[in-house]
Amino acid sequence: MLKRILLLLTAVPVAIFLVTLAVANRHTVRLVLDPFRPEAPVISTELPFYAYLFAALLIGVLAGGTAVWLSQGHWRHTARARTQEARRWHAEADRLARERDADVGRSKQLAIAGR
User: In Å, how far are 4, 66, 89, 90 from 79, measured between CA atoms?
Assistant: First the structure.
């Protein structure tokens, strides 16, 4: 419940800010991707200015997330290796417990038969 309240307390102001930004920057801007002939470009696009702002924000979030994900690869590999090692140790402990229980059962049977 607390997570939902915190989400609403942060998401609503951010949404209001983004809508205000979009309304204030709705004029059309021409983006030219031809550095050799900017007066008559081969590649250009005209979009509202807020579209460029949102695209830059999205690209930044994706680039940052990718960089963090790539930098944490070592730790994910270490966690996988240690998880596999822990599973092997648990399997070994279970096997030894079964052998112990079987030995205890046999010794009880021998004790009963020896009487």
Answer: 30, 19, 15, 16
How far, in Å, CA of 65 to CA of 75, rounded? 16
Cβ atoms 31, 50 nearer than 8 A: no
Backbone angles phi, psi at 39, to 5 degrees: -75, -30
8 Å CB contact between 41 and 32: yes
Sign of CA dihedral 105, 107, 108, 112: positive
Give the pLDDT of residue 2. 87
Task: Extract the residue ranges of the chain whose pLDDT is less than 70.
Answer: 114-115
- Quickly tell me which residue has 């460029």 as its tokens: 52
What's the confidence (pLDDT) of residue 114? 65
Predicted model pTM = 0.61
Could you give phi then psi for residue 28, rounded to 5 degrees? -80, 135
Using the structure block, give the residue that is written with the tokens 């279970």. 94
